[in-house]
Amino acid sequence: MTDSNDYAGSIELLDCMGSDLDVANAARVSFGVEHSELTDRDIKLIKYLWEHKHSTPFEHCVLKFRIEAPMFIAKQHMRHRTWSYNEISRRYTSENITMYSPSKFRQQASSNRQASTSNLVDPVIDIVAGERSSLEITATDCLKKNAEDSVKLYEALLAKGICREQARGILPQNTFTKYIATANLLNVLKFLALRDKPEAQYEMQLLAKAMSTIVKEKFPVVFSAFNKVEEV
After folding, report:
1. How many helices (H) and strands (E) does the chain have?
2. What are the two backbone dihedrals, phi and then psi, of residue 215, each rounded to the nearest 5 degrees?
3. Catalytic residue set
């Protein structure tokens, strides 16, 4: 897919419990066996477990992330209900409001109602006539103005004493939100299997790819087994 080069979300690993060895030891507990170092047999065991869908040993490892993403991406992530989430609340804070503003938009796919194409466009939405020339107002111009106007209205409502919990209702879906997301390794991999795919929304793909890099670093053997199966 063509990169719009302007997605500004972020993901940070806050904590990680477990390792490749913990996965192998969780499986070997059935035999009352535990290893102190990862062996070649452990590596083969992990690959066998994933290939044959023996999933419970992967549930004993946990990853905890801090994520910043537009609200429409965060809400997609939170559809993965096996995770635990805590999100910044605009009931409690009105600080640091920022918006996701792409430099171009993707076109709607004609054969899939929920998908986009790789074609990037910035169509003219309006034309403002002037004395000497006309000014073309593009889709990105409109998005930026909508964001600016929304924040101005939000701040005006707060200044007049309107409560944050109602004033926040006028903030658009491209407002960045921050949240903590925690899941066991199995459910992180299930998330990646769905979201690190061409079929997923582009911005979600970027989040998933960044998460994949973290998982690969912390669980290289598990990730190799997962990636091999996913590529088949």
Report:
1. 8, 8
2. -65, -40
3. 195
